[in-house]
Specification:
Blueprint (H helix, E strand, L loop, with lengths): L1 E3 L2 E9 L6 E11 L7 H6 L3 H11 L27 E7 L8 H9 L3 H10 L2 E2 L15 E7 L8 H5 L7
Antiparallel strand pairs: 1-2, 2-3, 4-6, 5-6
Length: 169
């Protein structure tokens, strides 16, 4: 943000994760401070994530919720679980409240299709509260626990082995 003589400019500032280059995308320019909606100035001053996402979607010409607000995955082994275990428990943390669907995050992290995840729920190989395929379409809450059970068929254990492959992005 920049203010000059009662006029306000605001930008979304982006940073490339690969090279750390930065660039600005204008939200608005030379708006009188008094013309701003109540709470907008305060949200701009505290770098409100929801406001930034809403403006990013609006600037991209997307109506409703933005389909790609961008998220990254960080994988950490919390306990000494081996790849020979019958069950794996994943905890998804979303401290920045990124608007991403559970199925999208799991599919990206496991290298699976979303339909594969739905089938896993139906077969009981993937469990989460509430235990429905519809839960996959919801936004990832602040914290979410997912349980994977090793399939009985040996040819279906590839996904399960991926849970323990920390070389994946």
């Amino acid at each position: 943000m920049n203010a000059n003589g009662g006029q306000l400019d605001a930008w979304l500032i982006y940073r490339c994760e690969d090279c750390s280059s930065r660039w600005n995308r204008t939200m608005f320019e030379r708006r009188p401070v008094g013309s701003l909606q109540p709470g907008l100035l305060e949200a701009l001053q505290r770098n409100d994530q929801g406001l930034a996402n809403a403006f990013a979607c609006k600037l991209a010409g997307v109506s409703g919720t933005c389909p790609d607000t961008g998220f990254g995955l960080e994988r950490r082994l919390v306990s000494g679980v081996s790849s020979h275990a019958d069950k794996a428990v994943l905890t998804l943390l979303n401290p920045n409240r990124v608007e991403a669907r559970v199925d999208r995050v799991l599919a990206m992290g496991l290298g699976l299709s979303r339909s594969s995840l739905v089938n896993m729920v139906k077969q009981g190989a993937l469990k989460m509260p509430p235990i429905t395929a519809k839960a996959l379409k919801r936004r990832v809450p602040d914290q979410f626990v997912v349980e994977f059970n090793r399939p009985a068929a040996p040819d279906k254990t590839v996904m399960f082995e991926r849970l323990f492959d920390f070389s994946l992005p």
